[in-house]
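Shape matters. Shown next:

___
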Amino acid sequence: MDLIEELRWRGMFHDMMPGTDEHLRQNAPITGYIGFDPTAPSLHIGNLATIMLLVHLQRAGHRPMALVGGATGMIGDPSGKSAERNLLDETALRRNQAGIQAQLEKFLVFDDSPTGALVVNNYDWFKDFGFLGFLREVGKHLTVNYMMAKDSVKRRISGDENSGADGISYTEFSYQLLQGYDFVHLFRAYGCTLQMGASDQWGNITTGTELIRRMGGELAEGAQQPAKAYALTGQLITKADGTKYGKSETGTVWLDGSLTSPYQFYQFFLNAADADVPRLIRVFTLLTKAEIEALEAEHAEAPHKRILQKALAEQVTTRVHGATAYEAALAASQVLFGGGELASLDEATLLDVFAGVPQVEVPRADLAEMNVISLLSEATGGVIFPSKGEARKMMQAGGVSLNREKANPEQLAADVTPLLGQYIVAQKGKKNYFLLKLV
């Protein structure tokens, strides 16, 4: 597989240094890396495109390396930021690193082969690197003028009202020098000759290639090599309207199931807009060009069936959370839209499915003294029906269900078997759902 060609047809390629394509073809397997920010306990959807760069690098016969920035994470990258970031301690960063590595193992093959993936932490080589030593060995090779010419720095230094910038500290100003030295260290210790990342990382990446050029380099085996390194960037993933991709109405979509449940994760991709999904399925899945084009043709014939969205959601959810979690998310999705069994849901998934519907608490002791008409009107404060008369009328017409069973106006509330011993799902008409919690 030709890496550049693969990235181009998938719409993932943005830019590369001259000679990168030839280097990849003539020196396989090369080692290439991407840095990941460990300031959160999990990676998120926004990181998936860069993870997929490493996936394709490995599929093309090269060694992928993920650098977890334990040291640089203590500082923060100013790229794309308008304000100083909060700093984390070493314990929190180590914990976050462990979570990130576990997620990367779902995408990359870690073994002892020449193309086996590696995870490294730059804290390991920065922790004993003294300030004076760093200035003497590294700092002298780059001028302040060179560092200030980077767009991410210029935007922060300008401090103009329109950018929202409030200046930049020396701490964040030094970030590109530290990231640049990461490349120098990996070049020397592992023979790493390629750094990849999103397009907004171009300035930081080329600082590394420039440092290698100026400082010289030596491979781990000790053989002298030309001090030449390369850079490749992928496209930032945005929606059709140009806005940043990766957030839902409730915030960031995380790869950790405890932060974003598999059901919510699945729904995020299932709800992708028709204008966005052709690009997303190319970036986030390993489906072939022929497979994607066949799905697109099928989708075009019946867009309402959301063929592309379903394929995208299945592929990504299975990769991130596993086949069992995907099946559970699919079953939960069908509860609302396909008539799936409510009783099959566990409590966490049930609450996920009905997270966006009106929810009402009802004292369990009150059920013995009322019928379902009172339950859905007075006992729920008029949230479902404003009056008993309206509730009765709709029940008589067959338009009300409780836990998917048609409600009978004469039925006692206590006769309704709650889900998981605690919940009643009320359905009013075809699309209006309510969740009652017995307390």
Residues 80-85, 217-223 have pLDDT under 50 and may be disordered.
